[in-house]
Amino acid sequence: VQLQASGGGLVQAGGSLRLTCSASERTFSRGVMAWFRQAPGKEREFVGAIWRSGNIFYADSVKGRFTISRDNAKNTMYLQMASLKPEDAAVYYCAFSSSVILSRVREDVRYNNWGQGTLVTVSS
Q: Are the CB atoms for 46 and 63 separated by under 8 Å?
């Protein structure tokens, strides 16, 4: 599965932005899709994941502000980000796993395919 993330840009603190992850094939709908992010000088960080069932799990740092959704018919996943903070600034990556359990969903090594990343900048 090839992934392509898009939608990043510059936004003021408190603003909103929506990221999109497009997948190359329909096997996307059978697995787990996730968002990660990496700020300069920091390790890659889990943001959230969505299972094919529609179950969603978020990192505590974004819970209540970010919303993940997927459109299996379009092989697309979205990350709606609201109330953005300067600490949300990072390169955001989408990732795919054919199978990952909840207890390991934060582990980036569980994901087989990665998009190229899209940069989100938040000005204070």
A: no
